[in-house]
Design brief:
The chain has helices at 2-19, 28-33, 193-199, 389-393, and strands spanning 35-37, 47-49, 59-62, 65-68, 78-81, 88-96, 101-108, 123-127, 165-172, 175-180, 183-189, 217-221, 227-236, 243-245, 255-258, 262-266, 269-273, 281-285, 292-300, 306-315, 319-327, 337-339, 344-347, 363-370, 373-378, 381-387, 397-402, 409-419. By secondary structure, it is mainly beta. The strands form 4 sheets. Strands 1, 3, 4, 6, 9, 10, 11 and 13 form an 8-stranded antiparallel beta sheet that branches. Strands 14, 16, 17, 19, 24, 25, 26 and 28 form an 8-stranded antiparallel beta sheet that branches. It has a 7-stranded antiparallel beta sheet with strand order 15-18-27-20-21-22-23, with no helix packed on it.
């Protein structure tokens, strides 16, 4: 009887272990559901330094885990995956050393203009609250959307330092959920009025591009403490398209002004004109838009030197980096594409198309941007057609420009966008 009981116990144990998938592997069901592995359990293939071409540390593979060796700092020690993701479910196991600090960042943008990943990417905070050397604010504690949203403490169950935890991020077209050890601990809507209020009143108020990216790489943080990661799995979610009026005809909701030039609404029109500085000025959407078909009407009242920027981002000061679809006086390539602070003109319009512009009257400019392909039309006539790898890798805001030099006034209306 004792022998049978022991035999039964061993069968149960073997059965339980037999039902568990080996670490860093996908089950048949996961494969059928479209899950992918971001770490093979053996090598760091597919991972590299942030803004780098290869991996230089401080990361190694140890016992089937990605290990942060604990030599990083706020300015260094970040590792990113190669592939860009947009909408997804991401799950991973992690453990941290006593007093340790790490994190999982997503939608991280790589650019020489961004020295660290957290200037763009939100972070699922991973930290040993109990043993950390310094007092922590609630927004710094484990499970928080760092410096933005706090988890529900009644649902947050974190195993102590040295023990494994499982975390999950769901990013579904702006709807975000964080999970810890099987419990949903927080959720929010990215780019909502509440989200922007938090972004613009706290740690990120002087970091204009934080959290705006709709896609990017994942980033693990070595913040000076050892940490371990395994079973990093992702399943992509479909993107939802939508139509939107970017200008409501009443105020500048959804836009941010940069510089001292004038942007205002009058009689249902959006108006830009030079201020006393007679310098450059920009009015940029608060959100990023990547693939879309945009139609906008403009009228040049005086010197009409302006433009519509696509996939552009803002540096502190009055600098907008990206690609400008030109709006200018006749003879100056309205509908062509110019790369600011880079290669200059990418494509100018044929001379015979200059007369399509109606100076002093309303014009309709249409811009279609999809992947690496940009096409523009002015008053129904195609102005140019461009394929460019660099634009294909870009993402960012739509922005209107007022050129420097003075005596510039342009009216805008009916800014209608349809995502692709």
């Amino acid at each position: 009887m004792i022998l049978k009981s022991r035999l039964f116990a061993w069968v149960v144990v073997l059965g339980l272990f037999g039902c568990q998938a080996p670490h860093n592997q996908l089950t048949e069901q996961e494969q059928a559901e479209g899950w992918e592995l971001l770490f093979d359990g053996k090598t760091l293939s597919g991972w590299r330094d942030y803004n780098g071409e290869s991996l230089t540390g401080p990361w190694v593979v140890e016992d089937g885990c990605i290990k942060a060796e604990g030599h990083g700092s706020d300015a260094s020690g970040y590792v990113v995956n190669d592939q860009i993701y947009k909408n997804f479910v991401l799950t991973w196991d992690w453990k941290i050393s006593p007093g340790g600090n790490s994190g999982m960042l997503y939608h991280v943008v790589e650019s020489p203009k961004f020295k660290t990943p957290y200037l763009t990417g939100p972070e699922y905070q991973l930290i040993d609250d109990e043993n950390f050397a310094e007092p922590l604010e609630d927004w710094q504690k484990c499970g928080a959307d760092y410096a933005m949203y706090l988890p529900d403490q009644a649902k947050l169950k974190v195993n102590p330092a040295g023990q494994w935890n499982n975390s999950k991020i769901v990013f579904d077209n702006g709807h975000v959920e964080y999970w810890m050890n099987g419990e949903k601990t927080l959720e929010f809507e990215a780019w909502s009025e509440d989200w922007f209020k938090r972004k613009n009143s706290g740690k990120w108020e002087n970091m204009p591009e934080y959290g705006l990216a709709t896609k990017g790489v994942f980033c693990l943080q070595d913040h000076g403490y050892p940490a371990w990661f395994r079973n990093i799995k992702i399943r992509e979610l479909p993107e939802k398209t939508f139509k939107k009026e970017l200008f409501n005809g009443k105020d500048l909701t959804g836009w941010e002004a940069y510089g001292n030039e004038k942007w205002y609404v009058e009689d249902g029109l959006l108006i830009c004109e030079n201020g006393p500085d007679k310098g450059y000025g920009y009015l940029a959407t608060t959100r990023y838009y990547d693939d879309y078909d945009l139609s906008v009407e403009f009228k040049q009242v005086s010197n009409g030197n302006s433009g519509v920027f696509i996939r552009s981002f803002v540096e502190p000061g009055v600098l907008v980096n990206g690609w400008q679809v030109e709006v200018a006086p006749k003879g100056h390539d309205t509908g062509g594409v110019y790369e600011s602070y880079g290669r200059g003109w990418l494509i100018q319009i044929p001379e015979e198309k200059e007369d399509i512009l109606k100076e002093g009257e309303w014009n309709t400019l249409r811009i279609r941007v999809q992947d690496d392909h940009v096409t523009t039309w002015l008053n129904g006539e195609e102005m140019m057609n461009l394929t460019d790898d660099v634009i294909g890798r870009g993402q960012g805001r739509i922005a209107l420009q007022i050129h420097d030099g003075g005596e510039i006034k342009v009216l805008w209306r009916n800014l209608n966008l349809e995502t692709l």
